[in-house]
Design goal:
Elements: H1 2-14, H2 20-31, E1 38-44, E2 49-52, E3 72-77, E4 87-95, E5 98-105, H3 107-157, H4 172-222, H5 230-256, E6 264-267, H6 268-278, H7 280-285, E7 289-294, E8 298-301, H8 303-319, E9 326-334, E10 337-343, H9 374-384, E11 388-393, E12 398-405, E13 419-425, E14 431-437
Parallel strand pairs: 7-9
Antiparallel strand pairs: 1-2, 1-5, 3-4, 4-5, 6-8, 9-10, 10-12, 11-12, 13-14
């Protein structure tokens, strides 16, 4: 643009003082597109206008600054621009005592640069999108082995057997999987060793415990008058030791077995009803009301294992309920799952102990009559059948929830069942009526 302005100025200077100057300006104005409009302003040293183009504004292009013999270029708004966004390029030059000013519109250049700017902006946006897509694709490929490692680790945490997958590339992720597999192998070995010790100890203790019990009972039968007073107390302690051994063996068997719904189709309401009848005397001895409310909920489970799990929950609730307290059993279907809840009116539990009470040999309360394994067995049985057991603090006491999957409907579903009355003696020996499914 500056080169064009210098050429135009040279043509004008060559015609200064001649009639051809005005003719040249008129020809320039006639031939040019408005987008390339040329503005010409020539003044003498005193500032008197000598020649001008027809499109020059009345006030000219602004005050002329004396800058010596060196030409000066600058920019200003186009005279026809209302908002000032259109621009012109101006060249000031002093030649032969005249102030020569030539300006040319930058409309084409502005449009060209505006188009370039828009193209650049669109290109940057497109590059950003392509870059984001490429980054996502690369990240997905890089994280895919890590996601597989995470899924497999979760499966192993849920009880599955095996190792973490390796990429066989020798990279950091592959070395991490190898290290974790070694760590898992050591854990499995330790767990297997503990299980073997538990099973071996349980089986080894059964025989001498049975022999001791037999000898003591035989002693009481043959010579009850000369038997020490401590023998009955020793027999009670032997009962507790035998229960503990049996519970440990049960836990070992459940831990060694994989989960999944197995066994027969059982109505959880029927099972809870039969156990409520069995525990009615135990509850009455401790002056605790046992109340049952049940609706049909058919599941598939090993009957003896489920009986032991539910019995442990009921026994735990009765033992921790105070004299004059109450234990409520509820059976039904909730969110497509079979639910048995046991609520006592005992001292309750703290929120931080809601999970710890299911640990083996955890001491809950001060009853001192249990083995500390009943709740652990209940949770192991539930998880072996695809369910779970958890505890929550109730308004008064503790709420235990046994959650199990419903049995599949391959045999035509669960039939309608009538509700009959189940009478359970309360702490005063009177009949207390509760609903129970027939």
């Amino acid at each position: 643009m500056d080169s064009i302005l210098f050429d135009e100025t040279a043509d004008l200077v060559s015609l200064l003082g001649t009639p051809g100057l005005q003719a040249l300006m008129e020809a320039e104005a006639a031939d040019r597109n408005p987008k390339d409009a040329l503005f010409i302003e020539i003044r003498d040293r005193s500032g008197v206008l000598v020649a001008r183009s027809a499109n020059l504004p009345e006030g000219g292009l602004g005050p002329f600054r004396d800058h010596g013999v060196e030409p000066r270029t600058w920019e200003r708004s186009h005279p026809d621009s209302q908002r000032g966004h259109r621009r012109i390029r101006v060249l000031d030059r002093i030649v032969d005592g005249h102030q020569v000013r030539v300006a040319k519109a930058l409309t084409r250049q502005q449009k060209r640069y505006g188009s370039f700017r828009d193209d650049l902006l669109r290109s940057l946006v497109l590059m950003a999108l392509l870059g984001a897509a490429l980054a996502w694709w690369v990240a997905d490929r890089l994280l895919r082995p890590l996601r597989g490692l995470t899924r497999r680790a979760q499966e192993l945490a849920d009880g599955a057997s095996g190792n973490l997958p390796r990429t066989a590339t020798g990279d950091e992720l592959d070395r991490l999987a190898s290290t974790l597999n070694d760590f898992l192998r050591q854990i499995h070995e330790q767990v297997s060793r503990v299980r073997r010790m538990t099973a071996d100890a349980g089986h080894a203790l059964r025989t001498p415990l049975t022999a001791v019990r037999g000898n003591l009972e035989l002693w009481l039968q043959r010579d009850p008058e000369n038997a020490p007073d401590e023998v009955p107390r020793v027999l009670k302690q032997l009962d507790r030791i035998e229960r503990t051994v049996n519970d440990l063996l049960t836990l070992e068997r459940l831990d060694a077995r994989k989960g999944g719904a197995v066994g027969d189709r059982i109505d959880l309401a029927d099972l809870a009803g039969s156990l409520a009848v069995d525990f009615r005397l135990v509850a009455a001895e401790q002056a605790v009301d046992l109340i049952l409310s049940a609706e049909s909920a058919e599941i598939r489970a090993e009957r003896n294992e489920l009986l032991e799990a539910v019995a442990n929950l009921i026994d735990n609730a009765i033992r921790h309920s105070p004299t004059g307290g109450e234990v409520r059993l509820t059976v039904g279907v909730e969110s497509g799952r079979a639910r048995l809840t046991v609520v006592d009116t005992g001292p309750g539990i703290r929120e931080e102990d809601a999970d710890r009470i299911f640990e083996r040999f955890h001491s809950q309360g001060s009853s001192g009559t249990g083995t500390g394994l009943g709740l652990a067995i209940a949770r192991s049985v539930a998880r072996a059948h695809g369910g779970d057991v958890w505890a929550e603090a109730a308004v008064e006491g503790t709420l235990f929830v046994l959650d199990l999957p419903l049995a599949s409907s391959e045999s035509g579903g669960i039939p309608e069942r009538a509700c009959e009355r189940l009478e359970l003696p309360d702490r005063l020996g009177r009949s207390r009526v509760a609903g129970r499914v027939a």
